Amino acid sequence: MLRIGSGAGFSGDRIEPAIELAEKGKLDYLVLECLAERTIALAQKRKKADVMLGYDPLLEKRIRSLLPALLKNNVRLVTNMGAANPIGGAQKIIEIAEELGLKVKVAAVTGDDVLPYVFENADSLLFNPELFETASILSANAYMGVSEIVPALETGADVIITGRVADPSLFLAPMIHHFGWSVDDYDLMAKGTVIGHLLECAGQLTGGYFADPKKKDVNGLAYLGFPLAEVQSDGSALLTKVPGTGGTLTLRTVKEQLLYEVMDPSSYITPDVVADFTTVSLREDREDRILLTGGRGKERPAQLKVSVGYDAGFIGEGEITYAGENAYGRAELAGAIVKERISRNYDEFKVDYIGAISGHRGSFGHQVNPYEVRLRVAGKTFEEDKAQRIGEEVEALYTNGPAGGGGARKFVNEVIGIVSTMVPRTVINAAIKVMEVGQNGKETV
Amino acid sequence: MARKLYELAHSRAGDKGDVLMLSLIPYEEEMYEKLREQVTADRVKSHLNHIVKGDVIRYEMPNISALQFVCQGALLGGVTTSLGMDTHGKTLSYALLEMEVDL
Question: CATH number of A308-420: 3.30.70.100, 3.30.200.20, 3.60.20.30, 3.90.550.10?
Fold first, then answer.
């Protein structure tokens, strides 16, 4: 039996649940999944500014709070916090361990960065090369899988840090390493992938992103605990969480997460397998314990998916609130004024009425008469000063717009677009770098 | 009798590029067959007409008594470059639950 915990579901996730898992989860492995599609392109930008950076910005905070408990309880850590710089991330972990007087061995997995290949082959690889006439490619990272992670586990490292890998592979790799599963056993690969898929968003399995008061209540959401799986050698698993933590783990929460972000439940494609989720069975054992069995798989795909990040200019935004009688009418007048003043200067321009119809782009027959409305104006452009102009125009509504507007705010954000393509497996050149720090000081193998 | 899906089922939205995925999970598993009959891909497409520009494909999951709707062209061009307030379309699970079925 193998116990794997999920200590982060995105780069900004809470840290306390991971500490609970490391201290009380009786884990063999803790996985921290911290890399969204855009995160790596942003990380690449940080690395360009400083070659030592480019790993997850919260790496230091997470490692500092987790490393002592992980080492004390003999829990190995697997994480994609390396982002655009797994070796830089590993060096940072060594530095923290040295400072805390801890002995640690770290393995960094590299090879996902295929930017040079994508540059050279942009015409054939990119679905819409015209996109890049005014934009520039920032990053191109292949989704690596267990074939690249397992060798890092074999080094005996306490911490395995990667860049871009498929999220479920972070969980499947320890299972393969522990049980000695063959990567050609596609049913086992599928079973492990389902477990990884369920765990990868951490709190979304245990009642996070689920509650709807009086309809779907979740107890102790403020102290939401993250999930762990007890995996058996046949690929079945018990999903549970640390007793005493908040949240809930039920058939309902597990079903929502099983289907989360799934394009075709009969063919869930990772670098390791094509898994069939329609063959999975779920059973409630007792409170906060769900049994997972079944799962079939087919041969892994020949090519690897690559996420290409490109500079897509700037989004400028401005917001202002109207409240009281005829709030919506005044907000609509304000929106029309800003549109008339500046919309012609933007590639794309959008006016939203927050509190009225902005989220669903309509109201499905509901009467919309809100007591207060927040006007939000947004526009896209490649010129930063033009992006700034939007917030300035919204702010100018104070003295140049309808009555009673308040709380104006303005924002400018860089936009990183992502497109996907496929590359042959041979393009990636995976490597592992092991670093150690202990009683005898720092050493690199 | 017309009932809102909100009363009968729950849903979570997911995204990939310009594609929106919406699960539909009845609170009571016995309700699965009724929903499978009534909540067709066509009906979802017409319910979300002002949001989903492309096709809607429905996947049936009898093993967990749930349906999955995969909606193309639903996120204003795609999560990463959309000007929308909710770029991921995360709130749209509740747009699906606004739909009515006849029981």
Answer: 3.30.70.100
